[in-house]
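[Discussion] Sanity-checking designs against the backbone

I'm trying to build intuition for which residues belong where. Below is a structure token string of 254 positions. I'd appreciate it if someone posts a full sequence so I can compare it with mine line by line.
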């Protein structure tokens, strides 16, 4: 607010979910950008992007989505959903290295926006250093600032070769099936977890076993990698994980 004179309105979650009606109350004709994570990192709640798109655009605002917790696992049609901006990085579900990222900008709004900063990879004739009128590129590359982390992008390319061998719907279906099996096992053991229903669940399961920090340390020592977020254990099975691996995980919950 101090830098740009903008009012920041924070829509708070309720029991792990981000209710659409709270967004509706926060958005009005003065709203410029509606920003949300497609999947909440701490709870696994999956947002209803279709409804948010309508809320944002009906009020003349852009919709910006952080897809880092979804890309590589969930099929997200940015074009048909009319997402204006999407950002993420190569790590997590994309199976790539930290240091490589990406930005998507909807083609139909390119003539309405300008980058706040220019980098030499974001302008026309990038190798001509003797002129001072630097014209931004006409597509989303205009937002490139500085030089890319080349080695990280080589790693991202290799991970994409693996991911693209498997249709995105198949990856999504497999990861969700394993996550649902985990929810079933948690129910059997009477361990609390967030359950948002089929439309809002993701492959990220946030549960609340006893002594979560000690449990996570024990899991790590046995080469089972989860994470603790907001005092809860976050388990994120990908398409290649199996129900047998979930059963092995649950052996440590007793």
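Best answer:
Here's mine. Compare freely.
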């Amino acid at each position: 607010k101090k830098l740009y004179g903008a009012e920041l309105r924070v829509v708070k979650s309720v029991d792990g979910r981000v209710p659409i009606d709270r967004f509706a109350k926060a958005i009005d004709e003065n709203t410029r950008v509606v920003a949300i994570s497609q999947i909440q990192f701490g709870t696994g709640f999956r947002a209803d992007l279709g409804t948010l798109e309508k809320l944002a655009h009906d009020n003349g605002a852009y919709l910006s989505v952080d897809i880092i917790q979804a890309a590589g696992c969930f099929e997200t049609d940015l074009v048909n959903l009319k997402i204006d901006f999407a950002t993420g990085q190569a790590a997590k579900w994309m199976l790539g290295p930290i240091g490589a990222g990406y930005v998507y900008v909807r083609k139909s709004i390119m003539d309405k926006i300008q980058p706040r900063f220019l980098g030499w990879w974001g302008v026309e004739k990038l190798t001509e250093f003797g002129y001072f009128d630097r014209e931004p590129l006409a597509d989303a590359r205009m937002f490139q600032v500085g030089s890319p982390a080349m080695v990280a992008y080589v790693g991202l390319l290799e991970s994409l070769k693996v991911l693209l061998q498997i249709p995105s719907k198949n990856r999504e279906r497999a990861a969700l099936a394993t996550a649902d099996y985990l929810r079933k096992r948690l129910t059997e053991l009477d361990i609390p977890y967030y359950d948002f229903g089929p439309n809002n669940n993701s492959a990220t399961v946030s549960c609340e076993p006893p002594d979560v920090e000690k449990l996570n340390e024990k899991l790590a020592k046995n080469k089972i990698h989860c994470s603790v977020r907001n005092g809860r254990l976050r388990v994120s099975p990908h398409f290649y994980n199996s129900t047998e691996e979930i059963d092995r995980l649950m052996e440590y919950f007793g």
